Amino acid sequence: MTPQLEPYFKQVDGLADHFIERLRQAVAIPSVSAEDERRPDVVKMGHFLHEELKKLGVETELRPLGKQPHKEHLDLPPIVLGRYGNDKNKRTILVYGHYDVQPANKEDGWNTEPFELSIDDKGRMFGRGSTDDKGPVLGWLNAIEAHQKAGLDFPVNLLMCFEGMEEHGSEGLDDFIMEEAQKYFKTADAVCISDNYWLGTEKPCLTYGLRGVQYYSLEVSGPGQDLHSGVFGGTAHEPMTDLAKIMSSLVDVDGTIKIKGIAEQVAPVTDEEKGLYKDIAFTMDNLYESLGSKTGIFPDKERTLMGRWRYPSLSLHGIEGAYSAPGAKTVIPAKVIGKFSIRTVPNLDIDEVNKCVEEHVNAEFAKLNSKNTCKVFCQHAGKWWVASPKHWNFTAAAKAVESVFKVKPDLTREGGSIPVTLTFEQATGKNVLLLPMGSSTDAAHSTNEKLDRYNYIEGIKLLGSYLHYVAEEPMNN
Amino acid sequence: MTPQLEPYFKQVDGLADHFIERLRQAVAIPSVSAEDERRPDVVKMGHFLHEELKKLGVETELRPLGKQPHKEHLDLPPIVLGRYGNDKNKRTILVYGHYDVQPANKEDGWNTEPFELSIDDKGRMFGRGSTDDKGPVLGWLNAIEAHQKAGLDFPVNLLMCFEGMEEHGSEGLDDFIMEEAQKYFKTADAVCISDNYWLGTEKPCLTYGLRGVQYYSLEVSGPGQDLHSGVFGGTAHEPMTDLAKIMSSLVDVDGTIKIKGIAEQVAPVTDEEKGLYKDIAFTMDNLYESLGSKTGIFPDKERTLMGRWRYPSLSLHGIEGAYSAPGAKTVIPAKVIGKFSIRTVPNLDIDEVNKCVEEHVNAEFAKLNSKNTCKVFCQHAGKWWVASPKHWNFTAAAKAVESVFKVKPDLTREGGSIPVTLTFEQATGKNVLLLPMGSSTDAAHSTNEKLDRYNYIEGIKLLGSYLHYVAEEPMNN
């Protein structure tokens, strides 16, 4: 049965200004989780959400997470939990979002006050957290309110989990999810996360895959302390020379990873997969626009999307311990730590990748015949994630997109990592869907972050519509 | 005629405590030239010297250098000039030193207050500037005073030039020296600089050569702004990848410079030169001690000394624009600037070296087939310097060493650069001698800088003795 969504959509349109006002109030709370002195604002934002949920009749609670590790004077902000409906005849959808934001200062290059929602004549709503992730989080609340005001039955039971530390490592979240998997989250039939972006600006997408990441420190040391290059240059093995050699051996200019054993682990491209890329709403101009240059590796969009989504990549990030300031300093650094990371894809195994990296580095260093000391270690590792886009969770979302935007969504993966996705999948054993609200130009994490009015209001329709289709989709796994 | 130095030496010994007190007063003035807020202390130190010189009857003046370039609110500290004696029948020696010091904070790891002279039971006098360069500068004043108190005729006319910006680029000094070459410095017959160190701890040396330095910035850029490695890794040419390749192509782990055309310019080793190294008071253990490790390139001292003094070297210093903090950041830096420098020796030509570097970098970058942009440029260049150690200025100093230390000095070169040396040589056209007072363990520029009481007091004897022998040496060029 196709849901009758017109009354809901009309209600959302009618409440648009009210929903924007709610976003304005949320953006006005500078809930920057990375700045200790802003912690009270993060907590304030958690309480704001808690109060808004209560007003909507949602059963809600604030769950403390204890002290922040390594900063015992700081309480972690609470997890805001919510339960709306508890009808055994309805499906239960668990949604996740975060109410903290990235740092922002007007002086960094913002055209408007970052913590005041400013709407320009193109309907762009500028403000820190507008798109990441206050807009999407409020989207769920707004969907509930529109149903209430339209007198419509809410189609599912909704479980909500909103955290306040996402922009600062999601401290405490993984343990909490694991702990509540068979308690608060026990009844969830599927999970939906709205914390990513459309691939472009025109066409919605559903995201079913993420790359993992393994981040390495490659340390070369020799002298007991930094040396003067005049006094010691030409007489001592220099750690920077060794490090440059090893870093340059990891990856080629065309992105090919030179570490033996990585490419062999990558899942082969199937014929079915090959056909997926050409229809994705993405052009090389989209790439060039987001790069700010024409320095792409591949001439075509298919290979570019595969490079982003389904092949591993290796990036050199920088060097700790070497001279990094402007100007000139004639130092021979005594200990340098190269930083690089590998984006991983199916079927790369975390331990196997670590082993390949260690073997490569050790072999390359041995070739050098240096008297310095070299070691490499994995700072942190997060696994790749790929869900089945054929699951009812996805087919429901696809129908919802069509009902709102009159277009079939692209099925996309992302090159980056959202570790909580995998945590929810592993903790609940349920299908997880990434259902973005904002577009690729929203500048999350950057200056002048924004959410388009169009994406916000239509996004609220999308979230509600998705829940209706979820209620109707046949069980398929 | 051999000078009769015993009365002078006795007088120096008798005044030792007084001379140490003078050094204590000087160290107590934190004349840190690199820190804007300390500028008044640098000026105060200049005035202290001026007053001390006046008390000794030296004709002295403070010469303003105007505003500091790029910091127009700051006056440069004055040059302290002094003239002691103006007898046409005597030789005139121009001495240079500096009265500013490196930054120092107790918290950096000093065992004592850096601006309080602290003498331990081994006679080590700890304090910022003790050896670099307040001890040597006061050495000249002390030599004058000891002559006066012993009722001895001063053997030469002494011209003094003490600057207050040596540790911060000697701003304004070169122009000043060029300007005064035919004025204040016109009558100088030779130049003596005491601002370097013995090669070890036991045996004095005279220094007749320095390497030059050419410092490069190697810039690779591509994207319009820093990128997220998850989103763009594997799809765009990364400047860090290109930079690592080029940096690793510049030099081998054993110090061999891989830039075509550099080795070809190095003056061949003569048979006479070959014999010089084996007698130098230097051991591989000296190297290992100063390195704080056994990571020397060569097993023998001869090749090590040649690597330091007479062969060029290339050091990679670091990268500007890449991630350099502890921890992890998954950034693809948009523009990275590799810093490296070449220590130069006879007969490397500044322009020719620049040309070789440019050609090498351009060729290596072309090989990469990258869409990024690469450029290299020389930030600053200072020429190598080699003087004749057979000049009377050196033979006088050698005899002075024998008279004080009962040993022939080593004739050494240095791997580092003291640009003012070449400036004085070029401006005056006279022979320049580097006559160190401190030893290799003095930790100039580091924490716990010190000057041994022995080196200070015997050094005062050395400076005075040197002037006596200068008065006696036959003209040889």
UniProtKB/TrEMBL annotation, chains A, B:
<feature type="binding site">
    <location>
        <position position="330"/>
    </location>
    <ligand>
        <name>substrate</name>
    </ligand>
</feature>
<dbReference type="InterPro" id="IPR002933">
    <property type="entry name" value="Peptidase_M20"/>
</dbReference>
<feature type="binding site" description="in other chain">
    <location>
        <position position="445"/>
    </location>
    <ligand>
        <name>substrate</name>
    </ligand>
</feature>
<keyword id="KW-0378">Hydrolase</keyword>
<keyword id="KW-0121">Carboxypeptidase</keyword>
<feature type="active site" description="Proton acceptor">
    <location>
        <position position="166"/>
    </location>
</feature>
<dbReference type="Pfam" id="PF01546">
    <property type="entry name" value="Peptidase_M20"/>
</dbReference>
<dbReference type="GO" id="GO:0046872">
    <property type="term" value="F:metal ion binding"/>
</dbReference>
<feature type="binding site">
    <location>
        <position position="132"/>
    </location>
    <ligand>
        <name>Mn(2+) 2</name>
    </ligand>
</feature>
<comment type="similarity">
    <text>Belongs to the peptidase M20A family.</text>
</comment>
<dbReference type="Pfam" id="PF07687">
    <property type="entry name" value="M20_dimer"/>
</dbReference>
<protein>
    <submittedName>
        <fullName>Glutamate carboxypeptidase</fullName>
    </submittedName>
</protein>
<feature type="binding site">
    <location>
        <position position="167"/>
    </location>
    <ligand>
        <name>Mn(2+) 1</name>
    </ligand>
</feature>
<feature type="binding site">
    <location>
        <position position="98"/>
    </location>
    <ligand>
        <name>Mn(2+) 2</name>
    </ligand>
</feature>
<feature type="binding site">
    <location>
        <position position="195"/>
    </location>
    <ligand>
        <name>Mn(2+) 2</name>
    </ligand>
</feature>
<keyword id="KW-0645">Protease</keyword>
<dbReference type="InterPro" id="IPR011650">
    <property type="entry name" value="Peptidase_M20_dimer"/>
</dbReference>
<dbReference type="GO" id="GO:0006508">
    <property type="term" value="P:proteolysis"/>
</dbReference>
<keyword id="KW-0464">Manganese</keyword>
<feature type="binding site" description="in other chain">
    <location>
        <position position="343"/>
    </location>
    <ligand>
        <name>substrate</name>
    </ligand>
</feature>
<feature type="binding site">
    <location>
        <position position="445"/>
    </location>
    <ligand>
        <name>Mn(2+) 1</name>
    </ligand>
</feature>
<dbReference type="InterPro" id="IPR051458">
    <property type="entry name" value="Cyt/Met_Dipeptidase"/>
</dbReference>
<dbReference type="InterPro" id="IPR017153">
    <property type="entry name" value="CNDP/DUG1"/>
</dbReference>
<feature type="active site">
    <location>
        <position position="100"/>
    </location>
</feature>
<dbReference type="InterPro" id="IPR001261">
    <property type="entry name" value="ArgE/DapE_CS"/>
</dbReference>
<feature type="binding site" description="in other chain">
    <location>
        <position position="417"/>
    </location>
    <ligand>
        <name>substrate</name>
    </ligand>
</feature>
<feature type="domain" description="Peptidase M20 dimerisation">
    <location>
        <begin position="209"/>
        <end position="366"/>
    </location>
</feature>
<feature type="binding site">
    <location>
        <position position="132"/>
    </location>
    <ligand>
        <name>Mn(2+) 1</name>
    </ligand>
</feature>
<dbReference type="GO" id="GO:0004180">
    <property type="term" value="F:carboxypeptidase activity"/>
</dbReference>
<feature type="binding site" description="in other chain">
    <location>
        <position position="195"/>
    </location>
    <ligand>
        <name>substrate</name>
    </ligand>
</feature>
<keyword id="KW-0479">Metal-binding</keyword>
<dbReference type="GO" id="GO:0070573">
    <property type="term" value="F:metallodipeptidase activity"/>
</dbReference>
<feature type="binding site">
    <location>
        <position position="228"/>
    </location>
    <ligand>
        <name>substrate</name>
    </ligand>
</feature>
<feature type="site" description="Important for catalytic activity">
    <location>
        <position position="228"/>
    </location>
</feature>
<keyword id="KW-0482">Metalloprotease</keyword>
